[in-house]
Amino acid sequence: MRMKNRSVFLKTAVTLLCAAVMMTGLAGCVRVTVNVTDDETEEDHITTPEDIESMVDGIDSAFTAEFYASNDYYKVTMPMEWYDRVEVEEVDGDQAAERGAVDTVSFYSTVCKEAGDGGHIATIVLSEERPEALEYIPGEAIGVLTEASSGRTLNVWVEYPSDVQGGPDTMDEYAELSEGRGTLAETFEPAEGWTLERMTLDEMMAE
Fold this sequence. Notes:
Blueprint: E1 12-20, E2 27-38, E3 44-47, H1 52-56, E4 63-70, E5 74-77, E6 86-92, H2 93-97, E7 103-109, H3 110-114, E8 120-127, E9 139-147, E10 153-159, H4 171-178, H5 183-186, E11 189-190, E12 194-198, H6 201-206
Antiparallel strand pairs: 1-2, 2-3, 2-4, 4-5, 5-11, 6-7, 7-8, 8-10, 9-10, 9-12
């Protein structure tokens, strides 16, 4: 994607992958959105990843952009380096319940995954249970989400793979993309109707 020596501010509303909600029969979708803002007019242009190049070519002034993934619970900003190189997959309903979660959103290197090398970079987990997994696998605690209307609380954290997910021919790609995984916890924002209390792992385990 040609940026014309301009800074980029990303924000996307394109569904990449949807997971069926088995208990209700509804569809729960993680959305990946690109929003480019014209710095001169302050006009926002929400577009698909496929159309972003032709869209920014039509902006004469400088622009900024944001690249993020969001669902009904939260939004996270993804590193610019992940654009067009990372797949996002959401699992909810019965499938998520099998692992003691309400919802999971996983990020994979497309190149590594297609090569059969795994490619798992990180998974955001929402659960009514405490993040006991973080006591024996890599990851980061985020905190507790609370739904304003019901008072329902969900613990949220990020899990990282405990083994290398790149092969001999894809290791450089995997290593580069993995460098940005900490952005997910740092930029985590609750969706409308939810609030977030950030906590350490020790604080979450003591709840």
